[in-house]
Amino acid sequence: MINVFRNPIIIRTSAKSNSIIISSHGKQNPNLSSSSSSIQIPTTNNPLNPKTQLLKPIILTPKLPLRKTRIVKKRIEKEDEAELLKVGSSGRGMLILCGFGYWVQGFRCFPWLGLNFDMANTLNLNPSTLQLVQNIAILPMVAKPLYGILSDAVYIGGAHRLPYISIGALLQVLSWGSLALIPVKGDVLPILMACMLLGNLGASITEVTKDALVAEYGQKQKIRGLQSYAFMALAAGGIFGNLFGGYFLSKTQQPNFMFLLFTLLLSCQLALSVTSREDSLGLPGPSANYILKKSFFQNLHKQFLDIITIISDESILRPLCWIVASILVVPILSGTIFCYQTQCLKLDASVIGMSKVVGQLMLLLATVLYDRYWKRIPIRTLISRVQIVYATLLLLDLILVGQINLKVGIPNKAFVLCLSGLAETVAQFRLLPFSVLFMNLCPPGFEGSLASFLGSAFCLSSIISGFLGVGLASLLGVSSGDFLNLKLGIILQFVAALVPLGWIAYLPMSRSGEEKEKKKSIRRMKKREHKRK
Predict the structure, then answer these.
(1) Contact 10, 54 (CB under 8 A)
(2) Is the pLDDT of residue 99 over 90?
(3) Which of the listed residues 159, 274, 397, 512 has the most CB atoms within 10 Å of its CB?
(4) How are strands ordered across the β-sheet holding 58-60?
(5) pTM for this one?
């Protein structure tokens, strides 16, 4: 029998014998004496026209057509899209639980917009004080590694993800519910600070647990890139939050009503997490070894040592150092810019909210493009381009402060609406490739610890960057009535944003070896654990 996939087949006609001859050359059956075999098929009695000949023989060879590569790529893209649908009911439960959770997380800008306006206009806080309060309020997020280790190591009722989401949602309900009942007055700032700290504590616990849940579920179901879809839900929540936030502030001028609405949303998230079962998502429960032999502190100690081992791996440590340093070196002037827009330019809340909506729309678009196309670009090349774009967009604030936009006929409202939030959008998008990279390299069972450590590192670097911005604004003498030296601060921001390009070599050139690096890190961790034993 002739193997048509291994041997070329030549089909030709014979006018002399009124037949079609099919010939095969190459490796044949050893029983055949010749290295070439042929089959002659007689045709009809009508002779073939001698002039009718095949100008080019039809040759079937084992070589694949040139467009095979494109077909394979399209097939891979379709398989990536179909991965989310192959997990049945657990996938639908995961979609509802985490999709709504990330949407609510993005919607947090809705009450925060009202709170910032209250502090800037009702309490009349100066730019430095406002930014200082904002940075102090997010201090609970620095402790994210503790929440992640607890989520990985300590089970509550046989589950270690959903109970922590419920706890975080409950803390946020208490925080924003209290803010809805407190009238904003001059002596209420300490109470506001306590509520903000409590709310961010609950938000940090929920965020860490959701990140760990997405990473763990993606690894178990072998679905790569779930973080991209989480970013999409986050951006969608931000779009609605900023859109409705600006509308409510401009129409009602009652931030307390916004706090109450957000409390109702958090109550829905709390009810959803309480009524869901973790085993319905297909996640493993605690092992018998965990239940019988390990105490609470033994689990925490082991999890802490393991996460230190994972982070010390060079494939994770070098990119982590780069992204943390790139955030830290740029002094953030967000509070100062906010006060300039509201106090100096007299822009109302609807314009500020819509500018955030435009930024979140751009973030959503960038996330879709990354998931479809940009994730195939080497991460070093992608991040270097993103960093240059981020530094350039920081100069848009220089155009606004210098009122250059008015000289070319662009009103302040239109400029802020379309361009003001783009730099912040790029800064948020810059974290996505690193989140995907780190979660793909994370060994199974440590998703919560690693996600929490990354969140804490990002948050701590942002806080330090905010404090640097406060110090820079104070050094330049920027205040509520004097924004003259703000231009110099923006220029220094631009220069600082270009500095991380000097150590871009810390990032991997290609992501094709992620699985190899992951296996290496797992082997190193097992060797160190064996030595400890």
Answers:
(1) no
(2) no
(3) 397
(4) 36-42, 19-25, 9-14, 58-60
(5) 0.65
Tell me phi and psi for residue 11, to 5 degrees.
-110, 125
Element (H, E) at 11: strand 9-14
Mean per-residue pLDDT over the chain, rounded: 77
Residue 8, CB half-sphere, CA atoms under 13 Å: how many?
8
- The predicted structure's pLDDT at residue 452: 75
Spatial distance between the Cα atoms of 4 and 60, rounded to a whole number of angstroms: 8
> pLDDT tens for residues 351-381?
887 888 888 889 889 988 998 888 888 889 9
The whole-angstrom separation of Cα 331 and Cα 382 is: 23
In this prediction, residue 71 has a pLDDT band, given cuts at 50, 70 and 90, of low
Portion of the chain with pLDDT greater than 90, in percent: 22
> Of the given ranges (269-273, 279-283, 498-502), which has the lowest mean pLDDT?
279-283
What is the SS3 string spanning 394-459?
HCHHHHHHCCHHHHCCCCHHHHHHHHCCHHHHHHHHCHHHHHHHHHHHCCCCCHHHHHHHHHHHHH
Side-chain-side CA neighbours of 59 within 13 Å: the count stands at 11
At 10, is the secondary structure helix, strand, or coil?
A: strand
Phi-psi region of 520 (alpha: psi -120 to 50; beta: other; left: phi over 0): alpha
Burial of 473-509, coded b for 16+ CB within 10 Å and e otherwise, reads beebebebeebeebeebbebbbebbbebeeeeebbbe
CB atoms under 10 Å from CB of 7, counted, come to 18
Helices 109-117 and 162-181 pack at an angle, to 10 degrees, of 30
Reply yes or no on whether the pLDDT at 488 is more than 80.
Answer: yes
Residues 293, 295, 299, 305, CA torsion sign: negative
Higher pLDDT, 281 or 329: 329
Q: Is the pLDDT of residue 296 over 80?
A: no
Q: Which of 18-22, 117-121, 295-299, 358-362 comes out lowest in average pLDDT?
A: 18-22
Instruction: Give the DSSP letter of residue 482.
Output: B
Query: In the chain, count of helices (H) and strands (E)?
Result: 23, 4
User: Which domains are delineated in the chain?
Assistant: 90-280+316-508 (1.20.1250.20)
DSSP string, 133-187: HHHHHTGGGGGHHHHHHHHHH--BTTBSSHHHHHHHHHHHHHHHHHHHHS---TT
Could you write out the DSSP letters of every residue in 44-56?
Answer: -SSPPPTT---SS
306-325 exposure pattern, b = at least 16 Cβ within 10 A, e = fewer: bbebbbebebbeebbebbbe
d(CA 70, CA 384) in angstroms, rounded, equals 28
pLDDT one-digit tens code per residue, 307-350: 788 888 888 889 999 999 999 999 988 888 888 888 888 888 77
Closest by Cα among 177, 199, 192 to 130: 192
pLDDT at 63: 45
Distance CA 392, CA 399 (A): 12
